Amino acid sequence: MSDRPLKLLLVDQDPIFRLGLRVALEEFSNLQVVSEVETNTAALQILAELAQQDLKSINLVVLELGNSRSLHSQQISLQLCRQIKTQYPNLPILLLSSVQDQGLLLAAKSIGIDGYCPKGTPVTELVEIMQEIVAGRSYWYVFNDTTTQTPSPHFPTTPSFYRFFTRLLENLRLSGNTQIDANLAAVTAKLQIPGQPILERAVLAGQRRELLAARWLINHLLATPQPRQINDQSQPQAAEQLPLPVVNIPSDRTITPNTPSLLSPRALQATIFTFCLNKLQLPLQNVTDVSLEIDILRPDKKRELLYLILQKVADTLDDLRNSQIEINQLSDIKSAILHELWKEVSTEFFGKFSRVRFGNNQIEIINVILQSAGVVQTGILNQIPLVVDLFSYLLFQTDLIIDNTNYSAGSFEANQQAEMLLENLLIQVGNAVVQPLLNYLGDIEDIKQNFYDRKLISTREIERFRNSLSWKYRIKNLVTEPKAIFESRYDLFVFAPRGIAKTSIYAPRRQELAELSGIRLWVTLGLEFGDAIAPRLQSLLSFLGSGVVFVLTKIVGRGLGLIVRGILQGIGSVSLPEGKNKKS
């Protein structure tokens, strides 16, 4: 690989793909993703800003050619390529696209695009292609060119037979994958529903492993030979390599339970974050019986806030890696990490200089928010469970202990646990961002118009919502949390198909149990007393119940039966009186 540094601008509508590609490319020291954008307009704006400073800070544009379904978006992307080539003729462009239409690719080549390769190309090969294009050469991948393929020696070599055979294999493979993917999606959706019995989860996990194994077998047994590439310089072709699923991260998990991960820490992070990004596209309404501070937000604002927190968590992990933090230092700086995360998210979400009218004065929102740092830190941020475990897993690939069983980093169980911890972290940090707003600026019209759900904008609804939160804090502090400590578990909020749901995970909490005092201690003593007398009380009630049934059926019931029988017999023996005028 050349030592010439690569500085990229990524243009793709899919945020999940951009995240996965950026994290994968960060493994290469001589490569830098300078910027990543979603729209063509943003790409042109970035290039214009760099042109005013130093356009040499970017030496390659990597973009998706629209998408495979919309012809309109493909034409717009072609226009973008033409505009870039017109304004910046020396800036090379590589299409990293799912589009396979040969006519569209020829059109792209005709306007001066320097190269094309499909999504799913192994990342090491992709970087080599980028180096070739930056060096002034071109690269164009070719699909289904049977004239350049070498037929299998086990079959006749006539082109018609070979095309028929390969088409048959491809149809069988696609048909099998379609059925497997449908079943896999259904099983994966069921696995994401919290609160399922352990036995049912084990059965679903087994079904998922079988489907993944079946898909792997189909893709390998029914694979058809594919050409590598056609290079304009007719250079010797590299040896055939198996594609590695690094760039195009799949939509479902491909890591089987309790299987050690071969991913780097950054790739493992990308995997977890990708699953979380997928879930953020689901409905976000609260389906639990507990009020959440973020429930006050409009759906779009709630999703925007959670996206922002996820991005800031990724930045925080990068900062920790760059500072070469050691694993035993995470516990000491956990509070500082969460405080800084909350501060950055609040500042960006509300705006550093955003102002609202409060009485006769204009005040900056963020200044009011940050005044509640101590209350937020104590009441919400420090209560977020297992943050150190999550960060250790993402930074150092430590194993996770789940239900007293140790699972290797990258295993299905460990990834699922990390996902739940990350989702709960996002929701709780979101609560911490909104809580000061409700306390001090909750009834200001500008705030209500810009942030609140339309169902909660009246003063009465806001006060009712505040009261609900106030009761939540009291009940959690005095009852819910002591009960969870006594039961050795943590309650987590997670993203489920129907909305934000609540689940519980086991965790040893003996030290917290020993530190309970006052009402919180009496709650646990009451639970223990109830556990102690419950079996005896149940036996006593069962005995008393049996006695009552005996009295009602054997004594009272029999007595009533005798009385009723006597009445009926008496009625049956009554005769009509003789008439007064009866003659003797």
Features of the shown structure:
Response regulator receiver protein; alpha/beta; 584 residues; two-stranded antiparallel ribbon; globular; Rossmann fold; EvgA-like; Sig_transdc_resp-reg_receiver; six-stranded parallel beta sheet; Uncharacterised_Ycf55_cyanobac
Total of DSSP H or I helical runs spanning 4+ residues: 18
What is the mean pLDDT?
A: 76
Largest sheet: 6 strands, parallel
Record the strand order, biggest sheet.
2-1-3-4-5-6
Distance between the termini: 140 Å
Categorize the overall geometry.
globular
Q: Give the C-alpha Rg.
A: 34 Å
Helical percent range? Answer: 55-70%
Query: SSE order, as H and E?
Result: EHEHEHEHEHEHHHHHEEHHHEEHHHEEHH
Stretches where pLDDT is under 50 for at least 5 consecutive residues are 144-162, 225-263
Residues in β-strands, percent: 5-15%
Structural class: alpha/beta
Number of domains: 3
The count of β-strands is 12
Protein name: Response regulator receiver protein
InterPro entries: CheY-like_superfamily (IPR011006), EvgA-like (IPR051015), NreC/VraR/RcsB-like_REC (IPR058245), Sig_transdc_resp-reg_receiver (IPR001789), Uncharacterised_Ycf55_cyanobac (IPR016837), UPF_Ycf55 (IPR022552)
Organism: Fischerella thermalis JSC-11
Pfam family, one: DUF3685
Please provide a brief summary of the model.
The protein is built from 18 helices and twelve strands.
Structure, explained:
- The model is unreliable at 144-162 and 225-263 (pLDDT under 50).
- This protein has helices spanning 15-25, 40-53, 71-87, 102-110, 123-134, 159-191, 198-221, 265-280, 299-322, 330-350, 365-370, 373-379, 387-396, 412-440, 445-451, 459-486, 510-514, 518-573; strands spanning 6-11, 31-37, 60-63, 93-97, 115-118, 139-140, 355-358, 361-364, 400-402, 405-407, 489-496, 499-506.
- With 584 residues, it is α/β, with parallel strands linked by helices.
- The protein has 3 domains: 1-143 and 228-249, Rossmann fold (3-Layer(aba) Sandwich); 149-221, no CATH class; 263-460, no CATH class.
- The N and C termini lie far apart (140 Å).
- The strands form 4 sheets. A 6-stranded parallel sheet has the order 2-1-3-4-5-6. A two-stranded antiparallel ribbon has the order 7-8.
- It is globular and about 115 Å long.
- It is built from 18 helices and 12 strands.
